[in-house]
Write a structure and sequence with these properties.
Distance between the termini: 33 Å
Oligomer: single chain
CATH architecture of the largest domain: Sandwich
Number of strands: 12
CATH topology of the largest domain: Jelly Rolls
CATH class of the largest domain: Mainly Beta
Number of helices: 8
Helix content: 25-40%
Radius of gyration: 22 Å
Amino acid sequence: MRIGVGLPLAIGCAALLAVTVLAGDPDVAQFLYRKAEKARRARKYEEAEKSYRRALEEQSPFPEAAFGLGQTLEKRGRLGEALHAYRRCRDEIASSPAPSSKWKSLASRATRAVKRVQKQFTELERLDRKFIRACMSLGIRYHKTNPGAARRACAAVLKIDPDHKQARTLLESLGKGGPSGRAAKPRGRKLINDELEGWVPGLNEYWSVSNGLLTAKAEGPTGRINWFEGERTQGRYTVRAEFRILSGGPKRTCGIFLGNKHGEARWWALMIDWNDEIALVETTARGNTSVQEKILRGFKVGLWHTVEIEVKPGVLTVKFDDKRMFSHKTGDRTSFDGELGMFAQDVHVLYRNLELRK
């Protein structure tokens, strides 16, 4: 695999055969579009999504395929991706010098879909705010008579908004961290700050930082990896970060890399692909990657998620949303001393609460 072509996670033998068969078809995009439409009507949304995406790779502009992809993603509850697909449909038609009446009608439908999905996003944010207010009210009410309940209320708030000052202050005032009476574990060293102190900027035209929020906006089919080299790590450590994917293009990928030493030929990365895939990959200096572990468990675009990599000699353990996903033995690679960094390709993603724990 090559990073520059979008970091595909895996290609099965059946997929390779299909590509070979279709390679000589003069109308591959239409073939894939019809296949996607049939799958969508049959409610086989995963199959439909893959065919729509391949059709869009074969032909551009292709607003019908973009609209169908938006419908499919909306059905799957992935509103951020659906919004991007509907906007692509609308914008492709708007940029056409002489759109047909059929395309004009489709553009109207896409515009309505954009408004509908955007409204759903706004409603989700409203519900989050309402939930936070209720939890904080509960925490304040019971912080003396039932500290355990108050802690749980604060924890629920911080899961949605880790930077909520009132919840964090209240939780700290409660003292001990849980019903067992043991003190809460100290937080790790925060690596994202307003000056990015200790970081070496890479392609910083794609990166910005403000109030502890690192933003990577690398949209467009450039296939470039945009990253910061940063904290040097040694021995055993844990890297933890929260991320939120907002939008992206066909080659959308983001993640965390570690164990990158200057002059060495390979390092490791936790790769988060837009297509519901998370993988641990080994990467070479030439951009080739090999998938070592793969998680086919979806995440919701537009929401905050947590990733954590625990590093021990010869073993990497990965957690997603605080659930252990797998441990992978790394063979002859026993040390991951080196630099820690973030990358983003063809995607708009936010990172926060990046921590290094020893």
